[in-house]
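Input.
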Amino acid sequence: MMKPESMRPIRSAVGGVLATFLFATMPIAGAQAHSFSLGVSADGSDLPTALDSAIKGILLATRERDSHANETSDGHLGGLDVFLVPLPTEAAADIDGLRDVDRRPIDIAVLLGPGSGDDQDLSQLDPQTVVVRPGRIISEPTEAGRDFGARFLTAYGLRPDRAAIEGYNAARRVDLALRSTNGVADRPALIDALTATADGVEW
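Output.
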């Protein structure tokens, strides 16, 4: 009969394999801290067009800093990988180029337009989702603003409409907020940082 002492190495080996398996399959907090999901809701008489324009504006912002070859996300905001999620998610079928629209939960939701954020949109959000409106658009013509129009035209072959401008403005606010909070984990700090730019942000 095998003595209990002789079984210890086997138990240790099995325990080590099990621990390695569990470690490999568990979510890694550090990896999760390097990405977030951004829900986007818009309104208007032509909702698909408004949502598509808003996402184009946001995508332009996600590719301005920290971008690199072989992207696996929709770009970067605040130094983090961002995945854009149209709200409702069924609208993603009409929008080209989004990477992973089924990500959950949505960390931040951008609601564009006065009618945006109805029950259908908000039902897809986690209670911890930080909701943000685009904020005031600085209307004075600036060189940066004109440059945005030119860059949008180059990227998409058309001039930005109001939804595109609001989407871009919201993305710039999110970018600034995340750079000050180092991520989405501290929700109160993130809300404070977004509130600080609600009255306008320079492009």
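Residues 162-181 form the longest helix (20 residues).
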